[in-house]
Design a protein that fits this description.
Blueprint lengths: L9 H16 L7 H32 L1
Length: 65
């Protein structure tokens, strides 16, 4: 983008492009530390369940083979 804007008002165009990128990719801010804790615990529980399901599936496959 910088090469395309060479010789023009490049700083404003680059700043506008960065602003649009950040606006598109921003993540919602948690409402509180408590909400962050709950979200983290939920994520950990989901990961543990996925790991347990994977192990169970692997064991079933070994039994069937």
């Amino acid at each position: 983008m910088a090469k395309q804007s060479l010789g023009e008002v490049m700083i404003f165009q680059l700043a506008h492009h960065v602003e649009n990128f950040l606006h598109t990719h921003k993540k919602p801010v948690p409402t509180s530390l408590y909400q962050q804790m709950i979200d983290r615990q939920t994520t950990i529980q989901k990961e543990k369940k996925l790991a347990a399901d994977y192990v169970e599936t692997k064991e079933v496959r070994q039994i069937l083979i």
